[in-house]
Fold this sequence. Notes:
Elements: H1 4-31, H2 37-42, E1 51-57, H3 62-73, E2 86-91, E3 94-95, E4 103-104, H4 109-118, H5 140-146, E5 150-158, H6 162-165, H7 198-204, E6 209-213, H8 215-218, H9 232-238, E7 241-244, E8 258-262, E9 282-285, H10 299-310, E10 320-326, H11 328-334, H12 338-361, E11 365-371, E12 378-380, E13 389-394, E14 400-405, E15 421-426, E16 435-438, H13 441-449
Helix pairs in contact: 3-12, 4-13, 10-12, 11-12
The site of zinc ion (ZN) has 6 residues, from helix 11.
Amino acid sequence: MMFPDQKRRLYASAGAALVALFTVGVVTAQKIQFDRSGAVKSSVIGGSAKNVILLIGDGMGDSEITIARNYLVGASGRLALDSLPLTGTMTTYAVSETNPKKPVYTPESASTATAWSTGFKTANGRISTTARSDKDLKTIMQLAKENGYRIGNVTTAELTDATPAAPMSNVASRRCQGPLDMAECPKDTKAAKGPGSIAEQSIDLGVDVLLGGGKARYDQTIDFGTYKGQTVIQSAKAQGYSVITKKFELATAKPGEKLLGLFNSGNMSVQWTGQPAASSPSGPQRCKVGQRPNSEPSLGEMTTKAIELLNRKTSAGKGFFLQVESASIDKRNHAAQPCEQIGETVNFDNAVRVALNFAKANPKTLIIVTGDHAHTSQITDDDATPAGFTSRLITNEGVPMTVTYGTGNTPDGQRHTGSQIRVAAQGPQAANVVGVIDQTKLFYIMTRALNINP
Ligand SMILES: [Zn+2]
């Protein structure tokens, strides 16, 4: 119970504080005139790029970005991925396998990566092959290689997973990752005169830098052709690769030799952990950071090394194309694990920072930062107990944030969603991402920047 004069004093002091706040507000508003017209104009650059770096947060829609931003730098803070000057929105739908004229509104990583890798829409599960007719589509890395560019592929997933697979290989199914995984791709096997599994194709194409997980796929034995009886790793060594499996070995990798780094038998480890979302909300919790084993590099460390190895003049005087993926924003979203999802968004943001720093000294670099499809997680009302699986987090600014996963019947059964997602860019041709574009347009933006005629 508050006495009337106590109340009056409280209101008076609150009023004074408000006046003070208001005054400060007015002064600040006079000092900072919000007008970005000049900055936007000067970031519209035509012409060609020497290098293209495409950074993909798998399953990273606006919701995942906002959750990570709130947690790490606060609601009014900005991540590195927020700092690119030109932003647009991208549609990501797939098409039907039985009727490729019909859309499928919820895509996945194979159809989406095929879209920016080839300029074509395909059915879910396909890797740079056409829906129904199963024709191979020429990919951005194949084209870049033919045109004298160095190429690199960096991921926290298996290197043969859908997102890294689509720019460097053609198979009927994303499951055809190693020579022993070819059941769903009978026409793609080397025995059937096809290009082989995704792992084999990554080596046969001669991707200059391959860094990620998925060693078990490369340990499989090739059953046909020149390298019959050898593992994919042995065939890589025979084709001029140095092969490493530990983070410390990154330092020894030398420019001039192709590099295959396999830092986990499966997906790479996440860097943060915490309690999963639950039907009776978990938390309030703070995430456990620093959980990645010392043997595995961060995405930023892999990106730094990849750029160092790729950024040397080729005989043709060309630059490089590099794709970088943070995969477990998606994978931990499927498992309703907010801390692991946020940690991998932070892992991604640090890789974005590496690319932006490179572009400061190398302005003829087109950088594109985007996701591949939208996902489950939502910031929901703290007072509600939503249907679905929920966790309450305490952000770095000390405020509760409720995150809910509601697209599956079990916590680890969460599904993709079909919303449009953000695409941001800087450098030559970056202005082409502005507005609402389809994901397939990224292929044309990148090939145009690299002066490649697809
Ligand atoms: Zn997924």
